[in-house]
Amino acid sequence: MFEYEIIDIQNRNMELKRISSTHQVVASQKELHIGWCLIDAKSIEKILPSLSEIGVSKISFISCERSQKNFKLDTKRFNRILEASMQQCGRSTYIEFDTYKDIRAFIKEFPQTKVFDFTDKTLDEYTDIKTVLIGCEGGFSQNERALLKEQDIFRLNTPMILRSESAVMAVASKVLL
């Protein structure tokens, strides 16, 4: 953070004097890592600024059985989008990105993962979520559900069926804010 004093203003020039500078980290008080089954990159790009603003710390993109296979993720573009969002909201750290070839690999690395899916338990019953897995459009396949049966599974308290990006935003908001 820099603070400047205006010394002189002319037609196309401005002279400034730096008064002070401080290093300040602006981040969410909580951390949330989202495991997100791949969806269209354009949909991801639309929601990234909002996820940044509420404080998501990491997103792992996972190739799931129902993910379309032709999506290519451009993390450089994602970071450019994040940079603009960070300038507006004051956040000082980027969301970390990584990828996993399937849910099995993700759960192996993050065994404490909670899963957003259809169940009787609502999110209100969980107080301390660090990592959450959210499926792509169409949800998890039967094979993936069998793999996830040992995980804590929750839903939001709504009768509506959410799109993947709506679910990511709703869960992140509920956990972080």
Describe this structure as you would to a colleague.
- By secondary structure, the chain is α/β, with parallel strands linked by helices.
- It has one domain: SPOUT methyltransferase, trefoil knot domain (Alpha/beta knot, 3-Layer(aba) Sandwich).
- It has five helices and eight strands.
- The chain has helices at 41-54, 75-89, 103-109, 142-148, 164-176; strands at residues 2-9, 14-21, 33-37, 58-62, 96-100, 114-116, 131-134, 152-154.
- The strands form two sheets. A six-stranded parallel sheet has the order 5-4-3-7-6-8. It has a two-stranded antiparallel ribbon with strand order 1-2.
- Helix 2 (75-89) links the parallel strand 4 and strand 5 (96-100).
- The radius of gyration is 20 Å and the shape is elongated.
- The chain starts with a strand and ends with a helix.
- The relative contact order is 0.19.
- The model has no long low-confidence stretch (mean pLDDT 92).
Name a few traits of the molecule:
177 residues, 5 helices, alpha/beta, Alpha/beta knot, six-stranded parallel β-sheet, two-stranded antiparallel ribbon, 32% helix
